Protein backbone atom coordinates (compact mmCIF):
# COMPACT_ATOMS: atom_id res chain seq x y z
CA UNK A 1 0.00 0.00 0.00
CA UNK A 2 1.39 3.38 -0.94
CA UNK A 3 1.82 6.22 1.52
CA UNK A 4 -0.93 8.17 -0.21
CA UNK A 5 -3.46 5.32 -0.04
CA UNK A 6 -2.49 4.56 3.55
CA UNK A 7 -3.08 8.16 4.58
CA UNK A 8 -6.53 8.12 2.99
CA UNK A 9 -7.79 5.15 5.03
CA UNK A 10 -10.50 6.37 7.37
CA UNK A 11 -10.71 4.95 10.87
CA UNK A 12 -14.17 4.84 12.44
CA UNK A 13 -14.66 6.48 15.80
CA UNK A 14 -17.47 6.24 18.33
CA UNK A 15 -19.73 9.25 18.70
CA UNK A 16 -18.64 11.40 21.62
CA UNK A 17 -14.92 10.71 21.65
CA UNK A 18 -13.84 12.75 18.64
CA UNK A 19 -11.66 14.96 20.84
CA UNK A 20 -9.71 11.97 22.17
CA UNK A 21 -9.39 10.50 18.68
CA UNK A 22 -8.10 13.80 17.28
CA UNK A 23 -5.50 13.97 20.04
CA UNK A 24 -4.45 10.38 19.38
CA UNK A 25 -4.16 10.98 15.64
CA UNK A 26 -2.39 14.27 16.22
CA UNK A 27 0.22 12.56 18.38
CA UNK A 28 0.74 9.87 15.77
CA UNK A 29 1.31 12.46 13.06
CA UNK A 30 3.54 14.52 15.34
CA UNK A 31 5.70 11.48 16.02
CA UNK A 32 5.96 10.33 12.41
CA UNK A 33 5.97 13.60 10.43
CA UNK A 34 6.86 16.29 12.93
CA UNK A 35 5.07 19.49 13.84
CA UNK A 36 4.90 20.74 10.25
CA UNK A 37 2.95 17.69 9.13
CA UNK A 38 0.32 18.11 11.83
CA UNK A 39 -2.78 20.10 10.90
CA UNK A 40 -6.45 19.85 11.81
CA UNK A 41 -7.07 18.49 8.33
CA UNK A 42 -4.40 15.79 8.54
CA UNK A 43 -5.61 14.67 11.97
CA UNK A 44 -9.24 14.69 10.80
CA UNK A 45 -8.29 12.62 7.76
CA UNK A 46 -6.59 10.03 9.95
CA UNK A 47 -9.55 10.03 12.35
CA UNK A 48 -11.91 9.38 9.44
CA UNK A 49 -14.05 12.50 9.81
CA UNK A 50 -14.77 15.53 7.66
CA UNK A 51 -12.37 18.46 7.70
CA UNK A 52 -14.93 20.61 9.47
CA UNK A 53 -15.84 18.15 12.23
CA UNK A 54 -12.90 18.99 14.55
CA UNK A 55 -13.97 22.65 14.68
CA UNK A 56 -16.48 21.69 17.35
CA UNK A 57 -13.57 20.55 19.53
CA UNK A 58 -10.68 22.81 18.54
CA UNK A 59 -10.92 26.37 17.26
CA UNK A 60 -7.65 26.03 15.38
CA UNK A 61 -4.44 24.05 15.14
CA UNK A 62 -3.05 25.65 18.29
CA UNK A 63 -6.01 24.30 20.24
CA UNK A 64 -5.14 20.78 19.14
CA UNK A 65 -1.46 21.33 19.93
CA UNK A 66 -2.36 22.59 23.41
CA UNK A 67 -4.48 19.49 24.05
CA UNK A 68 -1.64 17.22 22.93
CA UNK A 69 0.86 19.11 25.10
CA UNK A 70 -1.49 18.90 28.09
CA UNK A 71 -1.69 15.14 27.68
CA UNK A 72 2.10 15.08 27.43
CA UNK A 73 2.55 16.86 30.76
CA UNK A 74 0.08 14.53 32.45
CA UNK A 75 2.04 11.55 31.14
CA UNK A 76 5.33 13.14 32.23
CA UNK A 77 3.96 13.28 35.78
CA UNK A 78 2.50 9.77 35.62
CA UNK A 79 5.60 7.99 34.29
CA UNK A 80 7.79 9.59 36.95
CA UNK A 81 5.35 8.82 39.76
CA UNK A 82 5.22 5.21 38.58
CA UNK A 83 8.95 4.91 39.28
CA UNK A 84 8.58 5.89 42.93
CA UNK A 85 7.83 3.77 45.97
CA UNK A 86 7.32 4.53 49.65
CA UNK A 87 10.42 2.57 50.63
CA UNK A 88 12.81 4.78 48.66
CA UNK A 89 15.03 7.38 50.27
CA UNK A 90 14.34 10.99 49.35
CA UNK A 91 17.62 11.07 47.43
CA UNK A 92 16.59 8.08 45.32
CA UNK A 93 13.16 9.57 44.65
CA UNK A 94 14.73 12.83 43.52
CA UNK A 95 17.09 10.99 41.20
CA UNK A 96 14.19 9.02 39.71
CA UNK A 97 12.11 12.16 39.20
CA UNK A 98 14.96 13.92 37.39
CA UNK A 99 16.07 10.90 35.38
CA UNK A 100 12.48 10.15 34.40
CA UNK A 101 12.27 13.64 32.93
CA UNK A 102 15.30 12.96 30.74
CA UNK A 103 13.99 9.52 29.75
CA UNK A 104 10.65 10.99 28.67
CA UNK A 105 12.42 13.48 26.39
CA UNK A 106 14.48 10.69 24.83
CA UNK A 107 11.50 8.41 24.24
CA UNK A 108 9.12 11.10 22.97
CA UNK A 109 11.28 13.88 21.51
CA UNK A 110 8.67 15.48 19.25
CA UNK A 111 6.07 15.58 22.03
CA UNK A 112 8.59 16.94 24.53
CA UNK A 113 9.65 19.71 22.15
CA UNK A 114 5.99 20.64 21.57
CA UNK A 115 5.38 20.85 25.31
CA UNK A 116 8.18 23.36 25.82
CA UNK A 117 8.73 24.83 22.37
CA UNK A 118 7.36 27.98 20.73
CA UNK A 119 4.61 26.35 18.68
CA UNK A 120 1.89 27.19 21.22
CA UNK A 121 2.05 30.97 21.40
CA UNK A 122 -0.89 31.67 23.70
CA UNK A 123 -0.29 29.15 26.48
CA UNK A 124 -2.10 31.43 28.92
CA UNK A 125 -5.35 30.74 27.05
CA UNK A 126 -5.24 27.04 27.96
CA UNK A 127 -5.75 26.59 31.73
CA UNK A 128 -5.58 22.80 31.52
CA UNK A 129 -2.16 23.08 29.89
CA UNK A 130 -0.91 25.45 32.57
CA UNK A 131 -2.25 23.23 35.35
CA UNK A 132 -0.64 20.11 33.89
CA UNK A 133 2.69 21.89 33.46
CA UNK A 134 2.60 23.17 37.03
CA UNK A 135 1.79 19.68 38.32
CA UNK A 136 4.95 18.44 36.64
CA UNK A 137 6.99 21.21 38.22
CA UNK A 138 5.45 20.55 41.65
CA UNK A 139 6.58 16.93 41.46
CA UNK A 140 10.19 18.08 41.19
CA UNK A 141 9.63 20.79 43.79
CA UNK A 142 8.38 18.25 46.31
CA UNK A 143 11.22 15.84 45.58
CA UNK A 144 13.86 18.52 46.14
CA UNK A 145 12.21 19.67 49.38
CA UNK A 146 12.02 16.10 50.69
CA UNK A 147 15.71 15.69 49.89
CA UNK A 148 16.63 18.68 52.06
CA UNK A 149 14.30 17.45 54.82
CA UNK A 150 15.95 14.03 54.78
CA UNK A 151 19.39 15.61 55.11
CA UNK A 152 18.18 17.60 58.11
CA UNK A 153 18.83 20.96 56.46
CA UNK A 154 15.29 22.05 55.62
CA UNK A 155 16.21 25.67 56.23
CA UNK A 156 18.53 25.58 53.21
CA UNK A 157 15.78 24.61 50.80
CA UNK A 158 14.67 27.35 48.39
CA UNK A 159 12.69 27.87 45.21
CA UNK A 160 15.87 29.06 43.51
CA UNK A 161 17.51 25.68 44.06
CA UNK A 162 14.52 23.90 42.54
CA UNK A 163 14.79 26.17 39.50
CA UNK A 164 18.50 25.45 39.17
CA UNK A 165 17.92 21.69 39.34
CA UNK A 166 15.14 21.88 36.76
CA UNK A 167 17.21 24.09 34.44
CA UNK A 168 20.05 21.57 34.40
CA UNK A 169 17.81 18.56 33.76
CA UNK A 170 15.76 20.42 31.17
CA UNK A 171 18.86 21.60 29.33
CA UNK A 172 20.11 18.06 28.83
CA UNK A 173 16.63 16.87 27.89
CA UNK A 174 16.29 19.50 25.17
CA UNK A 175 19.36 18.10 23.43
CA UNK A 176 17.29 14.99 22.74
CA UNK A 177 14.02 16.60 21.67
CA UNK A 178 13.62 17.70 18.05
CA UNK A 179 17.09 18.41 16.61
CA UNK A 180 19.96 19.94 18.61
CA UNK A 181 20.66 23.48 17.41
CA UNK A 182 23.94 24.07 19.17
CA UNK A 183 27.45 23.57 17.84
CA UNK A 184 28.76 20.08 17.15
CA UNK A 185 31.13 19.52 20.03
CA UNK A 186 34.56 18.15 19.19
CA UNK A 187 35.14 16.73 22.67
CA UNK A 188 32.70 13.85 23.01
CA UNK A 189 31.29 12.38 26.23
CA UNK A 190 29.25 9.15 26.25
CA UNK A 191 25.61 10.04 26.83
CA UNK A 192 25.05 7.77 29.84
CA UNK A 193 28.17 9.18 31.48
CA UNK A 194 26.89 12.70 30.79
CA UNK A 195 23.43 11.81 32.08
CA UNK A 196 24.62 10.26 35.34
CA UNK A 197 27.25 12.94 35.80
CA UNK A 198 24.61 15.65 35.53
CA UNK A 199 22.43 14.02 38.18
CA UNK A 200 25.38 13.70 40.56
CA UNK A 201 26.34 17.30 39.80
CA UNK A 202 22.84 18.48 40.73
CA UNK A 203 22.77 16.57 44.02
CA UNK A 204 26.13 18.01 45.03
CA UNK A 205 25.19 21.49 43.91
CA UNK A 206 21.87 21.62 45.75
CA UNK A 207 23.54 21.39 49.14
CA UNK A 208 26.78 23.18 48.26
CA UNK A 209 25.13 26.27 46.79
CA UNK A 210 25.03 29.14 49.28
CA UNK A 211 22.58 31.82 48.17
CA UNK A 212 24.02 34.34 50.61
CA UNK A 213 27.21 34.64 48.60
CA UNK A 214 27.14 36.08 45.10
CA UNK A 215 30.15 35.28 42.88
CA UNK A 216 32.13 38.31 41.74
CA UNK A 217 31.53 37.32 38.12
CA UNK A 218 27.77 37.44 38.67
CA UNK A 219 28.01 40.92 40.15
CA UNK A 220 30.05 42.01 37.13
CA UNK A 221 27.49 40.62 34.71
CA UNK A 222 24.68 42.54 36.41
CA UNK A 223 26.51 45.80 35.75
CA UNK A 224 26.48 45.31 31.98
CA UNK A 225 22.87 44.09 31.58
CA UNK A 226 21.00 46.54 29.37
CA UNK A 227 18.24 48.43 31.23
CA UNK A 228 15.72 47.75 28.47
CA UNK A 229 16.31 43.99 28.44
CA UNK A 230 12.99 42.13 28.54
CA UNK A 231 12.36 40.52 31.91
CA UNK A 232 10.55 37.21 32.38
CA UNK A 233 7.38 37.23 34.48
CA UNK A 234 8.05 36.53 38.14
CA UNK A 235 5.56 33.65 38.15
CA UNK A 236 6.97 31.90 35.08
CA UNK A 237 7.48 28.36 36.34
CA UNK A 238 8.54 27.05 32.95
CA UNK A 239 6.44 23.95 33.70
CA UNK A 240 8.84 21.15 34.42
From TrEMBL:
Pfam families tied to this protein: TetR_C_33
Region of interest called Disordered, as start-end residue ranges on this chain: 217-240
Residues in HTH tetR-type domain copies: 16-76
Top-level taxon in the UniProt lineage: Bacteria
Keyword field: DNA-binding, Transcription, Transcription regulation
RNA-binding is among the record's keywords: no
Biased composition (Basic residues): 220-231
Protein's name according to its UniProt entry: TetR/AcrR family transcriptional regulator
The organism of origin for this protein: Paraburkholderia panacisoli
Amino acid sequence: MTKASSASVQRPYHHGNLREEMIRCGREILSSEGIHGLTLRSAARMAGVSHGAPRNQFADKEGLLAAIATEGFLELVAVRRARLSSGMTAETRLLYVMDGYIEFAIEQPALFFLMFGPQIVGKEHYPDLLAAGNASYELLHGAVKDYFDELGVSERFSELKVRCAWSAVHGLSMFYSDRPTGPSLIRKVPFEQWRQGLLSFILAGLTAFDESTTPATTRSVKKVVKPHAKKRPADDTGAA
